Model the fold of this input.
Amino acid sequence: MSENITLTDVLVVGAGPIGLELAVVLKAMGVSYEQIDAGQVGQTINWYPRAVRFFSSPERIAIAGVPLGTHDQEKATREQYLAYLRGIVQQFGLRVNTYERVMRVQKNEDGFAVQTRRGGEQRVYQARQVVMAIGDLHYPQKLNIPGEDLAHVSHYFDEPHQYFGQKLLIVGGRNSAVETAIRCGRAGAEVTLSYRRAEFDATSVKYWLLPEILALIKSGQVAYLPNTTPTRVCETHVRLARTGAEGLIVPGSRAGRESGGNPGAIDVAADFVLLLTGYRMDTSLLEEAGVELVGENRGPKYDPETMMTNVPGLFIAGTAAAGTQKYFRLFIENCHQHVTRIVKAITGDDPPSGMVNDAAKTFDLPES
Done:
């Protein structure tokens, strides 16, 4: 294996919208930088279901002073935004080393030695500063129940066609689960939605989806099982237990029908199961670099004026600053200001006028 060493002032890890916006500004200001991503440009967004629309309006998620237009004047879809990000890379001539995974970030006397791997090739970047713009949706929140790894079970929704004419159990009660239930129900799936609480939280469901899911439930087009949670997935069905007001399993309700017909347990027939119960952030690189994790979300400790973590020279940007968000508070739209703070901390100057989206100053955030 060969090992290459690249010297740079700033290494930007992550090529999502905030990472790209930062790269545009650094390049415009003549700062020596490199940018890498473990996947493709906009990798996290690439994981979104096909044709899903953003929570935020286009003007709030536009970056680098480039307007984001949609053909129908609606909120952008996954496909439209990925095309927009590709256009940003091309317009500004950004060089992003994609499919290059960071293996280690180590502090040294000259800044940081960052070890990466792309295929069979190992590389080392020596950078004065490192910006981690890695997002916060790396792994699904596993339920750790029997049968969770069966072939007909997934933690990711792609598109509804494959569920046409099938019995589909969806577990969850926030944006992803609700939108999936609506789309799959409209596509001809026999949808049952299980949620551990009694009602949907209006702050966790897109405001245009909530009336629709309630209407579908009322009409019987989507079967709704509130106050339930799965305890076992089988080849033909899923066992659900009853939950209380706090969403926790009611004592005694784990017992199934085979063990005495406990009325607290429900068996739901299912050809496919989607466990859309949220995602968690991979904090291993931050921890290995010495970043302290704090709070319920286990987010990185940082100075909100500069976005520098407790490790001097190591910055955090974008939704990664929040850690694993149970109730989302950081979105693309209110992370643009991270770019301004980091650039000011690194260069001593503000970004060029109009190059960073000032949505946080213009709008009430977040949108809903």
User: Anything to note?
Assistant: The longest helix spans residues 78-91.
